[in-house]
Design goal:
With about 300 residues, this protein is α/β, with parallel strands linked by helices. Helix content is about 30%, strand content about 20%.
């Protein structure tokens, strides 16, 4: 069993590049894999590994400048959900593209999971899902507004186009683990919204703490690793990724005549050329051959969502 830790922390790193190599060396030496993003504004990522390895990496991160208060969320995976360890330098640890946003200055009111149901059930509260459209498609809170954004960078424009709809309303926002709400609540406050709330610990903490019988969550929660989705109790769901378009696929999707493993799915059946599909079929063949040899094909790393990171 592997421990999976999803983390983020906003702090000021004067030289993020100096932190990259020591962090990568430690993680690799302790059998930890995943993705960590470093920027001047802090650190973000999801890692997985043996208990001792995760503890060592977390201790290293907590010792970085301003990171003593690091908070993370843990879950378990029966198989290693990542193929390699990546530590990357970025302009932002979660890309919003709004240079004036600074969660260290101010954020919305944190709401504990146990108090979330009462808040979002209030008639004067608008609930907004800040995640991407493909994440919302497999699960969200009852009654939540889906901005239908393809990336978090699209959120500010969506808000500008829709802000008038929410006049005199309290705004409650949520995301997978909380990091996107740190920025989105700061952004709304700068736009003059006075009562802004967000789910502390994100969906993952809600699914961990709130019993299914009392839950207002509907569906699964998309995660950026090989498990693809989680349910209440942070149990792994039954979604997989389309290896062509990287959208989550339900068991029903995989029964569709438009689904071909590793090649296409109902979401992308018209998006790729025959040349692309031939290339995808060859990649799928190489993955199967690698599995038969007891090896992991490099193409699987992209499938597991390692081009992104949470929480």
């Amino acid at each position: 069993m592997f421990t999976v830790a999803a983390l983020y922390h906003f702090t000021r790193f004067e030289d993020p590049s100096a932190l990259k190599a020591p962090l990568a060396r430690l993680a690799c030496a302790r059998g930890v894999k995943g993705t960590l993003l470093l920027a001047r504004e802090g650190i973000n990522g999801t890692i997985a590994g043996p208990r001792e390895g995760i503890d060592a990496v977390l201790a290293h991160i907590r010792a970085l400048p301003g990171c003593a208060g690091l908070v993370w969320k843990e879950s378990a995976a029966a198989e290693m959900p990542f193929g390699k360890m990546k530590v990357r330098l970025k302009a932002e640890i979660v890309t919003m593209g709004a240079p004036d946003v600074d969660p260290r200055a101010a954020v919305g009111h944190y709401v504990e999971p146990a108090e979330w149901n009462a808040l979002i059930s209030a008639p004067d509260v608008v609930v907004i899902d800040t995640r991407n459209d493909y994440e919302v498609a497999i699960g969200t809170f009852e009654g939540a507004i889906d901005p239908k954004t393809r990336s978090f960078r699209d959120f500010p424009q969506w808000w500008q186009e829709n802000a008038a709809r929410f006049h005199n309303k309290r705004i409650a926002m949520f995301c997978t683990g909380g990091i996107r709400c740190e920025k989105s609540t700061n952004y709304l406050m700068a736009q003059g919204v006075e009562q802004v709330f967000h789910l502390k610990g994100g969906i993952l903490k809600y699914l961990e703490d709130v019993p299914a019988a009392e839950s207002l969550w509907q569906g699964d929660c998309f995660v950026f690793d090989g498990r693809v989705s989680l349910r209440h109790g942070l149990e792994q769901g039954d979604y997989t990724l389309c290896h062509a378009c990287r959208r989550p696929l339900s068991p029903t999707d995989r029964l569709s005549p438009q689904y071909e493993a590793g090649v296409c799915c109902p979401h992308c059946v018209d998006q790729f050329s025959e040349a692309d599909r031939a290339r995808f079929r060859e990649r799928e063949k190489q993955v199967r051959l690698a599995a038969e040899r007891g090896e992991r094909h490099l193409g699987q790393d992209a499938w597991a969502g390692e081009g992104h990171t949470g929480p």
